[in-house]
Amino acid sequence: MTPSPRNDTPTLLIAPVRTMDPDRPHAEAFAVHGGRILAVGAVDEVRAALPAEHETEELDGVVLPGLIDAHLHMQRGG
After folding, report:
1. How far apart are CA 37 and CA 5, in angstroms?
2. Quick check: 47 and 55 in contact, CB under 8 A?
3. Phi, psi at residue 74, to the nearest 5°?
4. CB 43 within 8 A of CB 30
5. Taking Cα atoms as reference points, which of 33, 20, 34 lies closest to residue 62?
6. How far apart are CA 11 and CA 54, in angstroms?
7. In the β-sheet with 55-58, what is the strand arrangement from edge to edge?
8. pLDDT tens, 55-74?
9. Residue 6 vs residues 32, 74, 76: alpha-carbon distances, Å
10. Residue 71 dihedral angles phi and psi, to the nearest 5°
11. What are the boundaries of each domain within the chain?
12. Which H helix or E strand runs over 74?
C-alpha cells in the first residue's frame, strides 16, 4: 500500500474483499494503518479492531490480493 498523507489515521475500508483464504474466502471490510492491514472481516469485526478515532471509506469495486514479482531474468522477461 502506498503511504498517503492520512497514513497516521487508522482507516476502515468497506468493500467486498476476496481473501484467497479457503476457510474464509469473502469479507466485507478491512482496516489499514501505517501502510499495513490491521484486520479483515465483517464490518463490525473490523470496526471493533480499530480505535474510536478512525476514518471510514466506502470503496467501489472488489478488493483482490495483489501479487508483486520483483524478481525477473532478462532472458525470459525481456
Report:
1. 17
2. no
3. -60, -35
4. no
5. 20
6. 6
7. 36-41, 26-33, 11-18, 55-58
8. 999 999 999 987 777 777 77
9. 11, 38, 40
10. -110, 120
11. 1-58
12. helix 74-77
Distance CA 58, CA 72 (A): 36
State pTM to two decimals. 0.75
**Per-residue pLDDT at 1:** 45
12 within 8 A of 45, measured Cβ to Cβ: no
CATH 2.60.40.10 is held by the domain 1-58: no
* Residue 28 CA from chain centroid, whole number: 11
Contacts of 30 (CB under 8 A, 6+ apart): 12, 13, 17, 37, 38, 39, 40, 41, 46, 63
The size of the chain, in residues, is 78
What would the grid cell of residue 66 be?
Answer: 495483489
Best CA proximity match to 62, nearest among 34, 25, 11, 7: 25
C-alpha cell at 35: 501502510
